[in-house]
Each structure stands twice: as C-alpha cells, then as structure tokens.
C-alpha cells in the first residue's frame, strides 16, 4: 500500500496510473483542515484535479478509527450527484480500491468555501437556494431506488464518523439524555428512505462565480433525509450564537433554508419528517459542543458553548417536534441570553 502524503510518492503513483509522463511536470499542493483524508491538489499540464486518500486513524486528538474503504462510498456518491446535477458537483475520474484513493475534478480557481463567507458575515441567499435545492433534488430523486439502496446499505462508516462521535460520545457527558439519543440513533441507523450525504455543511459547499459545488461524500448512506437538513441547519444556529451582534441574520438564513426544503420535499410526508428533523437537530447542536468533534470557533468561548447546550437541552427536555416552535424558541432565547 502507498501513502500519498509524500509528494514524490504521489507523483510516482500518478505516473504509474498513466496520468502524467514526467513526475517533475506536475505541481502538488496539500490541502489543510480536514481530519479524515490526505487531500492533494494536483495540476498536470494545466489540468487541475484533486486526489484523496482515506485515513484509517483520523487526524484527531482522541482515537477515531474508520474503514478507509469509505473512499469508494465517496466516489460512487459523487458520481450520483454529478450525473443528476453536473453543474453542482465535480466530475469523478478514478477509484483505486487497493489504496483507497480516488481522483476527481478540482473546483474552479477563485471559488470560496461557503463557510468562509458565512464567517465573514456574508449572507448570500442565492447560495442557500442552490444548496437546499440540490439537497432536496438528490433526496427526492434517490428515494425508493433499490439499486442505490443496495450500493449504500452499509452504514458502518456513517456510524463511525457520525453516530459514534456525535451521539454516543456526547451521551457519555450527558447520560440523562441516553433514551432520547438512542431514539435518534435508531432513526438514523434503521431508516432506509433515500441517499444521505452525511456531511452536508457550508464547509463542503464551494461557491463559484456562477453557482456552487458540493464536495466530500464519504459519509454517504441510504438513510433518513432529516439528518442532512439537521446537519446543515446546525451550522447556521452555531453562527448565530458565535456572532451575537447579528444573530438574526443567520437565523433568517436558517428559516429560508428549512422552509424552502420543506416545500420541495416529496420523498416522505412532512408530518413524519419534521419531528425527526427537530430531534436530530437538537442532538447535533449538543454534539458540536460536547461530542468528539466540537466546532472550532466556539472552543475558547465558554459562555457561547453553554448557550448552545441550553438551547439543545431545552429542545430535548421540552420534547419539541415542530420547526415553528423551534425557530421561535431559538430567536427568543438567543436574543434574551445575548443582551
């Protein structure tokens, strides 16, 4: 097995695959920030591409192991997104099952991570529109598809990267919510409704001049669509807490996103979807404070961490199950507690 974290090794690997003739003719830059993969930006004769290799031990302080075969999951899911919405997902090039490596089209030069824009206070509803429409389109298109369900029926990676670090680990710090957390875990693990991205967040949405590209599909599974919407929604709430001089802007973005998704949803009944979404959201909020992967921009702000805990535990304790009640509570409590 090879490891592409070394430039010479990666260049030699690309030559062996026939992607370049002279290793010295390509440029390689390693992407920083991710914990689950080694990611390299490679340019060969003016053609940019991304080469990714899954890590078995993630780059985290605590032990965090995950099957590296998740790269195959990412490759196949990326293909589905690109086939359905080619303007919103990169093209895939190859998958190497022996070394857990896949190659894809690089996003265009000059694009920006949506997360970076949001952290700067740039609220772009056109990006939100494309993001939620893409998510809803994939959920609706892939529902009740036996071929896709078979391809993504194994949820080991989803459990290792989402259920274990986000739910199970959080329960060790909040044993009083064990029953609630088990219910959410069962709903996510047992449901087989449609294709779930599993990491649908502003970090994985790149804003281009004329649209956006969705990235990072390694947690994909055939499960419950509420997870993706809750995962995305959580980021807007966390930023509303982070930027207490303008929380309403992020909550307005949340409101727009959720209501647009609700109107687009056809893969299941909204009355069944909504309470699962709220329960999942409540738990994910708590997980980004007390789980194995706490959100990095709140780690030094104890008061804001405590605010997220209070919001989440209020949702859980009060058994909230409608979005209208939830957004009202979030607006009122964040406004009250940040004065």
TrEMBL record:
<dbReference type="InterPro" id="IPR011009">
    <property type="entry name" value="Kinase-like_dom_sf"/>
</dbReference>
<comment type="similarity">
    <text>Belongs to the methylthioribose kinase family.</text>
</comment>
<dbReference type="GO" id="GO:0005524">
    <property type="term" value="F:ATP binding"/>
</dbReference>
<feature type="domain" description="Aminoglycoside phosphotransferase">
    <location>
        <begin position="124"/>
        <end position="236"/>
    </location>
</feature>
<keyword id="KW-0808">Transferase</keyword>
<dbReference type="GO" id="GO:0046522">
    <property type="term" value="F:S-methyl-5-thioribose kinase activity"/>
</dbReference>
<dbReference type="Pfam" id="PF01636">
    <property type="entry name" value="APH"/>
</dbReference>
<keyword id="KW-0418">Kinase</keyword>
<dbReference type="InterPro" id="IPR002575">
    <property type="entry name" value="Aminoglycoside_PTrfase"/>
</dbReference>
<keyword id="KW-0547">Nucleotide-binding</keyword>
<keyword id="KW-0067">ATP-binding</keyword>
<protein>
    <submittedName>
        <fullName>5-methylthioribose kinase</fullName>
        <ecNumber>2.7.1.100</ecNumber>
    </submittedName>
</protein>
